[in-house]
Each structure stands twice: as structure tokens, then as C-alpha cells.
Amino acid sequence: MTSILMYSVRPDEQEAIQAWAQANDIQVDTTDHDLGMKTVDMIKGYDGIVIQQHAALPEPELYQRLKEYGLKQLTLRITGYDIVNLQAARENGLVVTNVPAYSPRSVSELVLAQVMRLVRHLGEASAREAKDDYTWAGLQAHEIHNLTVGIIGAGKIGSAVARIFRALGSTVIANDPVHRPELADTLDYVDLPILLQRADIVTVHTPLDETTHHLINTQALDAMKPSAFLINAARGPIVDTPALIKALQTKSIAGAAIDTVEGEAGIFENDLSGTKVDNQALETLKAMPNVEVSPHIGFYTDAAVTAMVNISLNDVKTILEGGTSEHQVD
């Protein structure tokens, strides 16, 4: 019987995994460990592998070991694949796949929630209320239909974000090298400098690569309106964190919401209560009442979890049977 090992499996994924295994008559075993040099030997004897983690996999030896064990693929059940050494994977004959669109609605709905909290100053109101200060000064909000939402990266997730805000009456603009005809009634495409200057909400939905690393830097933040808000529900390093903190402290922008941040590996998804979190930038952002922080849960809905499991396992099955996955990234 074909067998697959899934790394970094959470309890909430088990139901979908078991249902897929039964429906496809394939053995699927799981571990809560990340893939790495200390755990790669666990794959020995399996035909396929699925991973989901923040920890990077740079070591060429790891990919050599997977090849030695007869693996043909390395499947991620997440969107971001920057953790993978694609050259090493290629050199060892490993097809790398990801899940580019598990549930665009899941991330877009979190963005909506974050935007509404920022625009209505709910974080600032809560900080006051904790001190029994119930004054209104500074809490007057704009109505969302009067705002311009700027989307950097209008792919599947960015498109879902665009449609939500357009339905609420907002003006939506986007910057993306691909202009999608199906979005003609939803948004207008503009150059990035224009987007930064015009948008009241700037929300980022690009992949992370050498062209988008620190795309939102001091220059970009300085170009935004002082009344504007930044949303990052994509990948942490797209935003230069020290630059963001400075922009917030100097009131160059009005606030931010981050679902992902540089240096989040080993922090987000873990219970660190009673310990000192080794990320001072994150601690600084958490302390700001005009900043919304969530622990990389944009994807985390029931529909998305099931889709991530099913799509990734279907990709493994396709490759093992000699087919080609439409989600190949290398």
C-alpha cells in the first residue's frame, strides 16, 4: 500500500486526513515534528511527504537524504514556499508543490476584521477602557465606504479582499503585474507609488521572494498617508519591521495589523506563557494600541484546513502515480 508521512500535524487536521486516507485507500501517518535534519530519517520507508512549518530547510544534505529514501516530491500544505531550498530540491529530483489557494476567503475575512478594528479605533478604545477611561476624543472613525483600499498583489487572496471591500462600497485599487479582466468591475490597477499615496488602507498579498523582501520599507511607509493603515497577512519579511515601528512611533502612518512578522518562527502557534519571548520588535508592536497582532491565523478556518489537507495529499497522489501537479512551484 502507498504510504505518506505528514509532518507538523495539528489535532484539528486529523479528521480531514483520516477521511482522505480512507477515501483513497492510502496509508497516511502523521507526526507533530517539523521536518529537519534531526527528523528526516522518519521518512524512510514512505513513498510521499507533506510538510507545514515556518522553520527553513536550507541544508542540501536534507534533500539528498530524501532522494536516497526514494522520495519524488516535497509537498507543502501551505502557500509560502520560501522555506524550501528549491535548487537543492531540483538537484535531487524532488518536485515541490504548495497550496496556493486553500481558501482565499479565510485570509480576506481576517483582513476585513483587522481593518474594521483599526478604522473604528477599537484597540485604542479597549486600552482606555482598561484604565476606566471612556472618553471619545480621538476615536471618531471614517466609514468604510468612504475609504480607498489599496491591494498589493491581486492574486486569489488579494482578489477576494478586493471583492469584499468593493461590496462594502470602498474604492479599490491594486498593484499587480498581472491585470485580471474578471476584476474590471471591482478595482483599478495603478503603479505602486500611486497606490501608496492614495490608499487609506494598504494591504499586502504578495508571495515572499527577492523582489518582495522588505517591499514595505521606510520609503514606502513615508509615501503613505499619515491617516493610513497597513495590513500584512502575507509573509512577515515583506515588511521591514524596524521601519514599521518607526513609522508608527513618529505617526507617519495611523496604525497597522500584522498576522505575520519577521522572526515569528518558534513563537506563533506556540504557548510561551511564563517565558520571555525572543522578539523585541513583536513585543513593541503588541504594546501599541493602534496595532492589531494575530498569530498567523489568517488561514485558520475549518474550510481552509480541510482544503489544505486535501489539496496537498491529492498532489502527492498525483505525482506518485506519474502525473503532474498544477501546484508545482519549481
Automatic annotation (TrEMBL):
NAD as UniProt keyword: yes
One Pfam family named in its UniProt record: 2-Hacid_dh
UniProt keyword annotations, A-Z: NAD, Oxidoreductase
Domain D-isomer specific 2-hydroxyacid dehydrogenase catalytic: 4-329
Domain D-isomer specific 2-hydroxyacid dehydrogenase NAD-binding: 113-298
Matching CDD domains: LDH (cd12186)
Gene3D superfamilies referenced in this protein's UniProt entry, alphabetically: NAD(P)-binding Rossmann-like Domain
Family: Belongs to the D-isomer specific 2-hydroxyacid dehydrogenase family.
Name of the molecule in the record: D-2-hydroxyacid dehydrogenase
Organism from which the protein derives: Bifidobacterium choladohabitans
